[in-house]
Amino acid sequence: MEEITLIVPTMAYEQQIKEYRNEFLANKDSMDGTSFLREYEHVPEWLAFIEQNSHEETVTEGLVQATELLAVRSSDDKLIGMIDIRHSLNDYLLKFGGHIGYSVRRSEWNQGYAKEMLRLALDVCRTIDLKQVLVTCNKTNIASAKVILFNGGKQENETLDESDGEIVQRYWITL
C-alpha cells in the first residue's frame, strides 16, 4: 500500500470526485462514508452540503455534525476513498451507522487502504474529543469487519436493519 492522506474535499478534486461517484454507480457499490454523494450530480452542490453539515449550528435536520474527508494517494494525488466522521450519534447512527463511514473505490480494493483510512480517521476523532467511536458494517462485509478489528474494534452485538434486511455488526473502538 502506498501512503495516503486525508484531506478536506475541494473543487480541486472535482473531476476525481465525479469519477469516484461514477465508478460506484457503475459497479452498484454502496457509497458509504460519502455524505450522500450518490444524490449529487454536481460537485459544487455536494461541497456546499458537506460544508453546511460540518457546523453544528447549520447541520441538516435529522443529521449530525460531520467531517467528510478524501483519502488521497500521495504519490499520484489520486482519490482512493472517502471517509465521513460523525461528531455525535443520533438514534439511527447509534443502531446502524456509527461515528465513521468509509468506502474505497473498487479499483483500489485489497491494498490496505481502508485499514489506513480508518487509522487516520481515529486520529481525527481524537482531535474532536471523542473517547470511543462506533464503527459498523454489514455482517456480509467480511473485509470491513477485518478493517475494524485491525484498528482495535470490539464487537458489541449484531442488529437487524429492517429498512434493508441486513444484519449490522456494531464495533466500539476506544481511543
From TrEMBL:
Gene3D superfamilies xrefs = 3.40.630.30
The organism sits in which domain of life? Bacteria
- Pfam families this protein is in? Acetyltransf_3
Q: Which InterPro entries match?
A: Acyl_CoA_acyltransferase, GNAT_dom
Enumerate the spans annotated as N-acetyltransferase domain: 4-175
Protein name, entry field: GNAT family N-acetyltransferase
